[in-house]
Amino acid sequence: MRKRIVSGMRPSGKLHLGHLYGALQNWKRLQDDYECFYFVADWHALTTEYADTSNIKENTLEMVVDWIAAGIDLEKNTIFVQSSVPEHAELNLLLAMMTPISWLERVPSYKEQREALSSKDLSTLGFLNYPLLQTADVLIYKANFVPVGIDQAPHIEFAREVARKFHFIYGNVFPEPQVLLTETAKLPGLDGRKMSKSYNNCIYLADPPEVITEKVRRMFTDPTRIRRTDPGHPDTCPVYFYHKLVSPREFLPQLHNECVTAKIGCTDCKRILAEHLVQVLTPHYRKRRELLANREKIREALALGAEYARSEAKKTMRQVRKAMKI
Ligand code: TRP
Ligand code: SF4
């Protein structure tokens, strides 16, 4: 039997290049060797967005479309929306009975996020519960591995502790889930800072060719290269970073050399990058448009995914209730 993978993403809407070269490529790599459950964590979105829920449904659809267009295969994986499987909430509740509040308070993201999002009132039970809901997401499918970025690793460590406590009291039910670290160098955004929606410096997978070209034209380059005749430093230039991702490998040494010897100017270098990036993203763009033309089909696929996920979740819940004698 194949080992199980569970991972989720909050519905942030359209995804950007950072997602493609981070989570999505990783998910795609895993889909042939593992039984994968990939879901939209819409309840997790509520922990911070409860005051304005108007975008969650549309963002869910937009995000799933990006998953599929990026090659996350509906046939190979179980793809669904968290809230369509209410058993996650039941397991969350039962685990809450034995989870010390202090364990939740000391998860590093709790304090960090509360401070980072200080404009929102996050003094809620729901927000404190975030890692425990995530624990339920993972344990309910008896996941062996959870592919996440380093920032999420403490949440999986937390899930393991909760599983151990459950086992100590009621006996073994769950495998202890292990982190599969998604290795990604932080993708620079258009301004050289980390690519992030909140910095407004993203290239979206949904961007049409002309938008990509314009964004690349405006991109920050090596700040020490002021005149065309100055030698450049490709290794610290965001434009070169992208070349490494999307340009043919054999082309890179030449470009590197032409930059450090000032043979090529940044305008030309960017024009070439834009061409390569458009080439890479055009199939995604087309697939995405095709998918969005038939939203009903996506909804049906998600319903089908939820049906299977739910049947598996119900099996686990029967074992949990039996272990707890309720
Ligand atoms: N907290 C995760 C994030 O922000 C999303 C998530 C929710 C998740 N439930 C999960 C990831 C279960 C892995 C497994 O990225
Ligand atoms: Fe960056 Fe290219 Fe300019 Fe070199 S030539 S500094 S790699 S944009």
Describe this structure in words.
- This protein has 326 residues and is mainly alpha-helical.
- It folds into two domains: 4-187 and 295-324, HUPs (Rossmann fold); 207-288, Tyrosyl-Transfer RNA Synthetase.
- 54% of the residues lie in helices and 7% in strands.
- The strands form two sheets. Strands 1-2-3 form a three-stranded parallel beta sheet. The protein has a two-stranded parallel sheet with strand order 4-5.
- 37% of the residues are buried.
- The protein binds tryptophan and iron/sulfur cluster.
- Tryptophan (TRP) binds at residues 6-10, 41, 44, 134, 137-138, 146, 148, 152.
CATH topology of the largest domain: Rossmann fold
Strand order of the main beta sheet, please?
1-2-3
Oligomer: single chain
Order of helices and strands: EHEHHEHHHHHEHEHHHHH
Class from secondary-structure proportions: mainly alpha
C-alpha termini separation: 30 Å
**What is the count of DSSP helices, taking H or I runs of 4+ residues?**
14
Number of domains: 2
Task: Estimate percent helicity.
Answer: 40-55%
Give the overall form: elongated
Rounded to an integer in angstroms, the radius of gyration calculated over CA atoms is 22 Å
How much of the polypeptide forms β-strand, as a percent range? 5-15%
Structural topology:
Blueprint: E1 4-9, H1 17-30, E2 35-40, H2 42-49, H3 56-69, E3 78-81, H4 87-96, H5 101-105, H6 108-116, H7 125-128, H8 130-139, E4 145-148, H9 153-170, E5 178-181, H10 209-217, H11 238-246, H12 252-260, H13 266-292, H14 295-324
Parallel strand pairs: 1-2, 2-3, 4-5
This protein binds tryptophan and iron/sulfur cluster (SF4).
